[in-house]
Amino acid sequence: MFVKVFLPVSDKHNHSPVNTSPMKKKEDTRKIKIILAPLQGFTDVTYRNVFSTHFKGVDEAVAPFISTMGQKRLKPSRIKDVLPQKNRNLPVVPQILGNVPEDFIFLADHLYEMGHKRINWNLGCPHSKIAKKQRGSGLLCYPDKIDAFLDAVMPRLSNRLSVKIRLGRKDKAEIFSNLPVFDTYPLEEIILHPRTGVQMYTGHADLEAFESAIESSSHQFTYNGDIVDLKSFYRAQKRSHGIHRFMIGRGILSNPFLAEDIKGIDNPADRIKRIRAFHDDLFDGYQSIFSGPSHLTGRMKGFWTYLGPSFKDSKAPLKKILKSRTLDAYTDRVEAFFNTVHTFTGPSSGLFQD
Ligand SMILES: Cc1cc2nc3c(=O)[nH]c(=O)nc-3n(C[C@H](O)[C@H](O)[C@H](O)COP(=O)(O)O)c2cc1C
Fold first, then answer.
1. Domain 22-263, CATH 3.55.50.30 — does that match?
2. How far is CA 53 from CA 80, 120, 187, 282, in A?
3. What is the mean pLDDT of residues 150-165?
4. What's residue 126's pLDDT?
5. How far is the CA of 134 from the centre of ligand 1 (A)?
6. Cα torsion through 344, 348, 353, 354, rounded to 10
């Protein structure tokens, strides 16, 4: 039986209203930590390394999840993603998806031996195939199971554990049954994406629910959800009770300058040229690891779906890139894209919402 600790409610919640005067904003940005969200199929080690060579402002990343496999087995291709020697540019926290304590501990121990002192437990994955098996957000409607899992796992973990959660599986009130459970364990932090699992990515990130969650927990929080520009960042910051940690996923895919902008890091170089250079390195990076051309163009098109709409008048040249079937067509159309577009606007605030 794990001896549960009741953490004192610390002074982490600065309840003073956020002052958005320029001076105050500047002070706040010095403390801000930006964490790159895990995005399976996007923010892997290749992306993280290339991104952090070209853009500043991101402090760390949580890697896309590694599933537990049972019977003390590991998937080497997934472990490769978090090899410390390949992740020197940007500190990375591996994430585990699973609900069987023995399997979780086996993988966590392996990660610890690799050098990972911090790991994250995925309690947010919304996909029904995963949730049906009571993994990811599928566990959020079973606080007793979360409790039993943490009770079995926490005393045996060498790594510090954080959790990445949603408000609930079906109902946002579920979080208020889970927070008291989390309060009894020494978690490093709670990363909260304030949507339910069944919502997937529809509707809005619920800032009011995020605020209530912070008030109902003694843990440190990281905010995650729908930050795509300065306006949405300030909106989230205002409702986050002085917390300093913000995780951003799709907003960074759409606007790689976002963390620099939030932190006020100036870089006078031409934004389109910087994106072009980033794109070319990303392409080279994936070309060196993917065997077939369709695999390579498929991966690059994924990035274009986020990045492409962030340029003014990009609809037609983007459509051509997304329709290209061969590597030659892809490279020609990327060339044409960069010859056509002249302004990088970033995504519109409503991009990820219904
Ligand atoms: C394509 C895709 C893949 C994702 N993969 C993961 C994952 O592996 N682990 C995880 O915890 N969340 C994953 N997420 C959720 C994101 O980490 C994040 O919580 C969500 O996108 C909301 O943040 P954002 O609005 O800043 O993108 C994924 C989301 C997307 C769109």
1. no
2. 20, 25, 31, 11
3. 98
4. 97
5. 18
6. -110
